[in-house]
């Protein structure tokens, strides 16, 4: 009974948080973005705090290692039907987040919450760094991650006794180093992901209109706190994408927040509905996932 009450309260809270339009960008851009005020952010944090922690992910998520040496976790909810196609979310973690249960289970555990899974059932792929020396932006490690993702999808889609992956609905998101990785991955694989959502991704995103041209077809939702030292990079990326003609790019900046926003930003009003509505929009010939 307690669990049902909690989920109901959280759902109401998400629906009641409005979006706030911002003025023009401070770095000289002309395209307005959304600023989330302190009071609205408190409501997002209240949703996070209502869970206290998301425990037991090490038992819920399956731990694997690819033949290329990449460690990763996969979460296939028991409620998913064998043979049916589902979206897949790829989450890239930050610098110190080497184990599945760090930071009280946020943000990796958010994707397994009934609040998310009941409305948007999906498979979760969580690649991991082997040590603090690894980087998602390293070409070799990026290739290893994509190889593991390709093989995971091919393995699931080659069986009738497991849920399958809808290869037109594979999404990418990450925080901090993972936010940088999100930008890095879509620059290298612009036709692989149906949507991308970098959180606190510094200046790894496009910093000029010409750099943004390659990414303008990808639905992108950018998140950053205004007190983060990398916030200018996110602002510039948003402006560059808009200047390049991107039709579906959103930037949310949280007022009086710093670098760490990954434990509440995913609760932002409308984000999950937007994410799971996206389908692959190929831009040019490039590497794609196997059907």
Fill in the keyword field for this structure.
291 residues, Rossmann fold, 9-stranded mixed beta sheet
Compact summary:
This protein is of the alpha/beta class. The chain has a single domain, classed as Alpha/Beta hydrolase fold, catalytic domain (Rossmann fold, 3-Layer(aba) Sandwich), CATH 3.40.50.1820. It has 9 helices and 9 strands.
Write the CATH fold name: Rossmann fold
CATH class: Alpha Beta
SSE arrangement, N to C: HEHHEEEHEHEHEHEHEH
Output the structural class.
alpha/beta
- Major sheet attributes: 9 strands, mixed
Distance between the termini: 42 Å
What overall geometry do the principal axes of the alpha carbons give?
A: globular
Fraction of helical residues: 25-40%
So, CATH architecture? 3-Layer(aba) Sandwich
Number of helices: 9
Unreliable sequence segments = 1-21, 285-291
Sequence of strands across the biggest β-sheet: 1-9-8-7-6-4-5-3-2
Compute the gyration radius: what is it?
Answer: 18 Å
- CATH homologous superfamily designation: Alpha/Beta hydrolase fold, catalytic domain
Q: What is the tally of beta strands?
A: 9
- Overall residue-averaged pLDDT value: 87
Percentage of residues in DSSP E strands: 15-25%
Number of domains: 1
Question: If you had to describe this structure to a student in words, what would you say it looks like?
Answer:
The chain is an alpha/beta fold. The protein has a single domain, classed as Rossmann fold (3-Layer(aba) Sandwich), CATH 3.40.50. Helix content is 31%, strand content 19%. The protein has a nine-stranded mixed β-sheet with strand order 1-9-8-7-6-4-5-3-2, with helices on both faces. Helix 1 runs antiparallel to helix 2. The N terminus and C terminus are likely disordered.
């Amino acid at each position: 009974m307690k669990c049902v009450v909690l989920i109901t309260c959280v759902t109401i809270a998400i629906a009641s948080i409005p979006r706030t339009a911002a003025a023009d960008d401070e770095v000289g851009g002309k395209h307005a973005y959304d600023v989330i005020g302190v009071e609205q952010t408190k409501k997002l944090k209240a949703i996070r705090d209502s869970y206290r922690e998301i425990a037991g992910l090490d038992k819920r998520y399956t731990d694997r290692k690819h033949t290329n040496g990449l460690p990763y976790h996969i979460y296939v909810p028991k409620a998913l039907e064998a043979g049916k196609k589902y979206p897949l979310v790829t989450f890239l973690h930050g610098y110190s987040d080497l184990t599945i249960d760090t930071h009280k289970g946020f943000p990796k555990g958010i994707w397994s919450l009934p609040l998310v899974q009941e409305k948007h059932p999906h498979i979760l792929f969580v690649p991991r760094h082997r040590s603090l020396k690894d980087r998602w932006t390293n070409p070799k490690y990026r290739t290893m991650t994509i190889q593991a993702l390709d093989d995971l999808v091919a393995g699931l889609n080659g069986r009738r006794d497991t849920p399958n992956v809808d290869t037109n609905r594979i999404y990418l998101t990450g925080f901090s180093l993972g936010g940088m990785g999100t930008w890095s991955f879509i620059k290298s694989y612009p036709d692989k992901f149906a949507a991308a959502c970098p959180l606190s991704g510094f200046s790894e995103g496009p910093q000029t209109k010409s750099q943004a041209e390659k990414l303008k077809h990808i639905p992108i939702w950018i998140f950053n706190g205004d007190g983060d030292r990398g916030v200018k990079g996110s602002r510039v990326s948003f402006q560059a994408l808009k200047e390049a003609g991107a039709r579906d790019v959103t930037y949310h900046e949280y007022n009086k927040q710093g670098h760490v926003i990954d434990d509440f930003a995913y609760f932002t009003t409308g984000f999950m509905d937007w994410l799971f509505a996206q389908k692959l929009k190929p831009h040019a010939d490039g590497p794609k996932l196997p059907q």
